[in-house]
Amino acid sequence: MERTLLLVDDEENITSALVRLLRQDGYRILRANSAAEGLVLLAQNEVGVIISDQRMPGMTGVEFLGKVRESYPDTVRIVLSGYTELDSVTDAINRGAIYKFLTKPWEDDLLRANVEEAFQHHEMKMENARLARELQQANQELHNINRQLEQRVEEKTREVLRNLHVLQVSQEVLEGLPVAVIGIGDDGVIAIANRSAHRLFSADGTLPLLGETAAEVIPAELQGCTCRKPGEKFRFRLADGREVDCWCSTMGENSPSRGVVLVIDADVPAVNER
């Protein structure tokens, strides 16, 4: 980034001497012979450091730099004047309108060091401002991400509640069916069993079917239904004389589950009703 220095002094020989001294440090140097001309150059250029004489016709250096502070607060402002004018700039220094007060005549190396320090100060201010903007942008992006996550959580929560409601309704419908419904996974374990299924295969209706191996609780005659063509109706006579109609369908068409569902309709009352 190019360092631009503005020199403001009504004495041409002063600005010329400063240019000869400071040109060796690689600065882009602008010159103005009055405060008004300095304001014009500031409007046209991005300036980092300003060195202004205090005693100028029309507007003093303090007045000029006070205006600069209002319009270009990021600039680093230096007054160059004699010892006798120190009192007139002290208040401006205290108010922050002026960064430093350098005296005439100046010592070359000291002046160069102060200008270098002023540019470092300016660049630090600009870097801090850049980091502050990036931090603000990052915070805004983080806020937006958090808001999106909150919305997704809200949507997912509503979806879970809807699914839970559907599941509850489905379970209620399943329990109220007058036929026995049993779902058997690929591992042979019963994953679904409604109330009618418990009544059909339990003497007192309390035999826990869920989690049981189907081969241990379902009569062999009905187990053969799982090998039949899905959707077809088959009639079986169980060992106890009961006749049942059985339908078999495959699980997994609309869900990740795998296995079969048996729907069994008995022609005679369940054993606990005899």
Account of the protein in words:
This protein is an alpha/beta fold. The chain has two domains: 4-130, 3-Layer(aba) Sandwich (Rossmann fold), CATH 3.40.50.2300; 177-273, 2-Layer Sandwich (Beta-Lactamase). Helix content is 46%, strand content 21%. The strands form two sheets. It has a five-stranded parallel β-sheet, sandwiched between helices. It has a five-stranded antiparallel β-sheet with strand order 7-6-10-9-8. Strand 8 and strand 9 form a beta hairpin. It is rod-shaped and about 125 Å long. The N and C termini lie far apart (98 Å).
Q: How many structural domains?
A: 2
Percentage of residues in DSSP E strands: 15-25%
CATH class of the largest domain: Alpha Beta
Average predicted confidence as pLDDT: 85
Tally the beta strands: 10
Helicity, in percent? Answer: 40-55%
- CATH superfamily grouping of the largest domain: Response regulator
CATH fold title of the largest domain: Rossmann fold
Low-confidence stretches: 268-274
Radius of gyration: 46 Å
| Overall geometry | rod-shaped
CATH architecture verdict of the largest domain: 3-Layer(aba) Sandwich
> What is the spatial order of strands in the main beta sheet?
2-1-3-4-5
H/E element order: EHEHEHEHEHEEHHHEEE
The class by helix and strand makeup works out as alpha/beta
